[in-house]
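Submission sheet (multi-component)
Chains listed below:
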Amino acid sequence: MKTVFPRLRRPLLALALAGLGATALADINVGVSVSATGPAASLGIPEKNTVALVSTTMAGQKVNYILLDDASDTTAAVKNAKKLISENKVDLIIGSTTSPNSLAMIDAVAEGETPLISMAASSRIVEPMDDKRKWVFKVAQNDAHMATAIVEHMTNNNVQTVAYIGFADAYGEGWWNEFSKIAEARKIKIVASERFTRSDTSVTGQILKIMATKPDAVLVGGAGTPAALPQKSLKEKGYKGLMYQTHGVANMDFMRVCGKDCEGTFLPAGPVLVADQLPAEHPLKKPAMDYTGRYEKLYGKGSATTFGAHVWDAAVLLESALPAALKKAQPGSREFRVALRESLENVRNQPASHGVFNMSANDHLGFDQRARVMVKIENGGWKLVK
Amino acid sequence: MDAQIFLLLGQDGLINGAIYALLALALVLIFAVTRVIFIPQGEFVAFGALTLASLQAGKVPGTVSLLIGAGIVVTLLEAAQAIRAGKLRKLPAVFLINLGIPLSLGGFVFAVPGDHLPLAAQVLLALLLVVPLGPMLYRMVYQPLASAPVLVLLIVSVAVHLALLGLGLLFFGAEGFRTEPFTDFSFELAGAPLQGQTILVVVVSAVLIGALYFFFERTIYGKALRATALNRTGARLMGIPPVLAGKLSFTLAAAIGAMSGILIAPITTLSYDSGFLIGLKGFVGAIIGGLASYPVAALGAVLVGLLESYSSFWASAYKESIVFTMIIPVLLWRSLTTRHMEEEE
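Outcome: structure written.
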């Protein structure tokens, strides 16, 4: 190659580059980084499964999804973000599953000027709005949304004293901060605040302490199957008051492990959990049924979770923002990513499976009280509380 | 805090302590015989419990494929060794033991759905599926490294732990499981409710510890293991093959781990990654016993259980810190009172 056709080399290279550019221009590339393994896997696996369902043609363009696993590890999440931006030249990143991972990715996406849609709960992912966070959007309800729903339900049911037992990690602490603030404002007295870890085999000590304070209600700040342990122990020790769980338990595995001991438990959740029970005029009925229908067709009845629905909503958000961005620039360029970011900020009244998006320059979540419902566990299923 | 709460916490601590004690004994056993600090001990707890849970759910547990896979690797290793040594007559036995048994177990599990079996048969089947992984692991990983320094063996143990953890996620998924209780029996003792299930944990642990004592004191294999632990070269000169000692200790450790998992599976939620912390707490007990003394290790493990239970009442957020901080004064005390012995290389 070195000496043959020296004069032809440069035009050939230009031609090759042009060809490369042309293929990149035609498609929109979306990077997805979820925690499909590690401690957050029970949330990350349905998210991964959902990627197979989202539409691959939006606004007449082909959309490619590049799926990576961050193993619930913050370092891996940052590495994924950097790889997606520099190697795959994505136009948008959806990720990650957990709050610590999403928070860690903010710097990387701001530096790479690529919009990020997070599926995690912490409000700090998009607040306070600054130069870096302007690249970050979020499709999962804030803990505060959910905590308000619980406190509201407690006041309506004459709960005066409440005990809290939560994970000794970011999830449990986040809930404790939100819940204690709101409960105090509503004059509900918190009589005990205990912690346990996901891998604990016994919570007898904490439960005995809670029982000694005789609370009207107990809130468990945990996610997935480990959150069943305090509730089963309470039942075993003869607790008769009201039980509350957080939206982190909204999957069938929790129900399977907790069984009969969880009957009558209240929890806040995204409306998608009880899609079939929503009244027909509810704005989320259609998108939520659409998601659960497609998911269960592929993965079996009763398999749809609220967690996977976040990926679906991220895709809804992208589809809604895409036409305006495509008018301004071609995918694959910095201009397009800037336009997409602006366009995401301008999404108005877009119903998705978890809530109605009303984005603004300062609110990169855009949910209102339509994004949560109270649900009661009845006969091994979720029942919408009217 | 009144007397009833004190009693209940003590009861809870004893139950956890009994499990930690079993694991501590297994860790001391493996370390004494093979010098391996067996970090994956906790994985056997999780595998035992989750295999039983899958059987009860009428599913084919993922451990079947692991068992067959490990069987194939071991068969190849053993066959290569036999051919190289020219002992072709050994080949049928190699194939029968390492490949035949896993395959027939697998065939049985595929043919008979686990949820149709009586509970005792499910437990037995779960043990049969998990326990052989112990000696197979030894054959694949530790036997070729038998003379490596302790540090290398420790690093290998970490690798094995991570590998088994990943396989656990693949086989059982990310969610936790509970198995059906062995008994619904319960009564009141001094005003505190006592579940039959928790008594069963303590009783079975005590029986297992008794059986181990009998095994080491009264049987030829137990004595061989003790001899190997005391002096590896001396034991070898007396005709005790180190490979046999290694395999035997790993079999025992796997059996203890799987049994512990099966015992606690009805009273708590276990997932693929919950074994590690349980094993680590057994390890704290084993450290208290200096990784050498069985009775001190068992007592130390019970102490860990009690400490955990009482600290979960007073300061639940700091429970793990309190339990693991206990290692520091113990190590200080040990390093001040015992003379340090250089490890033979």
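Remark: The mean pLDDT of chain B is 88.
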